[in-house]
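SUBJECT: A protein chain and its fold
Encoding: whole-number codes for local backbone shapes
Chain under study, with its fold:
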Amino acid sequence: MRLAEAFAQAGRGSLAFVGDGPLRGELEGRVGIRLVGRVPHERVADWIGACDVLCQPSLVEPFGQALLEALASERSVVATRVGGPPEFVPPEAGVLVDPASVASIADGLRAASELPSPNPAARRAAAGHDVRLQAERVERVLEEAAAQ
């Protein structure tokens, strides 16, 4: 609900909720908000590609795979300051927000909407976290541990 309230405060654009949950009834009928519901996994990339900004102000976010996918798709992001996103979201690719603060999320939405779309800086930010690179890093760590 914080994201919907922040969107209303931001005062422009449109917001699509992709996925479903128990708050659907509270979101239905809000101006500028589209409730997509569940989509097949193979369609998620289509929705990421359709957005100008992907917003994921999670209260708990150990990593943020959807954020990385958006960055790799040259989409700016609004991400939580909690958990993994501060490690890979630089200011030129997105905005980090306090996920418990509607005002912070609204400010983040406004700031991220001013970033380029598509955003080449976002793709550069994601490049260092490519799943193949991560797998190679894990493999090296495991090999070193096994050698000891």
About this structure: The longest strand covers residues 33-37. The chain has a mean pLDDT of 95. The CA atoms of residues 14 and 32 lie 5 Å apart.
